[in-house]
Specification:
By secondary structure, this protein is of the alpha+beta class. Helices cover 34% and strands 23% of the residues. (2S)-amino(hydroxy)ethanoic acid binds next to loops.
Length: 409
């Protein structure tokens, strides 16, 4: 058994389309921000699909949705997963692919009447994106014991809505203890979200690990004053300081090898055209494959903030939103993915992940690996995010083969 098992591509694509219809945006993408009604609808859909497959459906206290195919014996489960929440301008595949493909693997085993040696499961983790509540990968971080439930529940979005209250509001504050299902191995199928695989003619990515991520929130405080009557030399302008900080972070990417920097949020108060701002809240998303490099970038930014505060006579307060080290994946599982791709006659290459993933957290618990398929144009976190049906089906086939190999190891 095993080598002749094949997923049902049409069934997989139909489920992906059904999920993409939930929170669909006019631009052709998806908007299912964590713990919104759209996220709840996606969760309800997933639970119904899991139940239709006869899986044992469990919801844990941080809202992770778990579908379990019982195995013959007790023992650590082979888990597949990802997330169904999206960023505000999300696409159809980021996260959804890994959850729906995991479902397809279990559906394939069920349809063949196969009982795996030990439990196999698919998990949709809560709030992977970190777009509404920080940090990102929050549900898998709690699952892996890296954040307490109390700390997670206390997170609030930009409007002040609490994570715990929102989880209860949508009915997904479940009874299970996060991490209740012991994991023997974890696999995540995901779109690459970058241009590498496509630029090399396509194929499968055997992901070697995830780069380090640091998210900072900076609150800059000045003095609100009239934009027409206040001489430039008298201003304490956090808006100007913010602009200087964004340029500084960007220039670091030219001096620190592998360094990336993004400012995705700038909230100005009072936000009136004719008022020198009182406060600006901004975020910096720093990434680097090397822990030393990202630490160097953060140190430089903190030092620049001290200089900027004196220069522009503004206050600058920093708050951590996320901080995750570079995370390597399991060599045996990576080699297994390469072998599965070769058996399917698919080109495969090793690749590091630029994006954060729930696999980054599951790697704290068990041998973990990811499978990438190409993103058309390398585009993601964009409604135009697309992958070909052929790559989607091929990726899910590798997920089945790799997970089954691990289940029988
Ligand atoms: O931010 C990330 O890399 C992921 O999309 N949450
Ligand atoms: Mn993702
Ligand atoms: Mn994402």
């Amino acid at each position: 058994m095993g080598s002749n098992l094949r997923i049902d591509g049409e069934r997989l694509l139909a489920r992906l389309a059904a999920l993409a219809a939930i929170g669909a945006t006019p631009e052709g993408g998806c908007r299912r921000l964590a713990l919104t009604d759209e996220d709840r609808q996606g969760r309800d859909w997933l639970v119904a699909e899991m139940r239709s497959l006869g899986l044992d459906v469990r919801i844990d206290a941080i809202g992770n949705v778990v579908g379990i195919l019982k195995g013959r014996e007790d023992g650590p489960a082979v888990i597949m997963g990802s997330h169904i929440d999206t960023v505000g301008t999300g696409g159809r595949y980021d996260g959804a692919l890994g959850v729906v493909a995991g479902l397809e693997v279990l559906a394939t085993l069920r349809a063949a009447g196969i009982v795996p040696p030990r439990d196999m499961a698919v998990i949709a983790f809560t709030n992977e994106e970190g777009a509404r509540f920080q940090p990102d990968m929050l549900g898998s971080l709690v699952w892996a014991g890296g954040m307490t439930l109390d700390a997670a529940y206390a997170q609030a979005d930009a409007e002040g809505a609490g994570l715990g209250a929102e989880l209860a509001r949508i009915g997904y504050r479940g009874p299970e203890r996060p991490g209740f299902l012991p994991a023997g191995a974890y696999f995540e199928l995901h779109i690459e979200q970058g241009p590498v695989l496509e630029s090399e003619g396509g194929g499968i990515g055997a992901v070697t690990g995830v780069q380090a991520i640091t998210w900072l929130e900076l609150t800059l405080g000045g003095k609100p004053s009239h934009a027409g009557t206040t001489p430039m030399g008298y201003r304490r302008d956090p808006g100007l300081a913010t602009a200087r900080l964004i340029v500084f972070a960007n220039e670091l990417t030219g001096t620190i090898p592998g360094q990336l920097a993004n400012c995705g949020v700038v909230r100005v108060s009072p936000g009136n055209v004719n008022v020198v701002p009182e406060t600006v809240t901004m975020t910096l998303d720093l990434r680097n494959p090397d822990d030393g490099g990202i630490a160097e970038a953060e140190t430089a930014i903190r030092r620049f903030c001290a200089e900027l505060s004196a220069r522009d006579d503004v206050t600058i307060a920093l708050r951590d939103l996320a901080r995750f080290p570079a995370t390597p994946f399991d060599e045996t599982l990576i080699a297994g993915i390469e072998a599965c791709a070769a058996e399917f006659g698919l080109p495969v290459r090793r690749i590091i992940s630029g994006a954060g993933h729930d696999a980054q957290m599951m790697a704290r618990l068990c041998p973990t690996a990811m499978i990438f398929i190409p993103s058309i144009g390398g585009l993601s976190h964009n409604p135009a995010e697309r992958s070909t049906d052929a790559d989607i089906v091929a990726g899910a086939g590798i997920l089945l083969a790799a997970a089954w190999r691990a289940a029988n190891a």
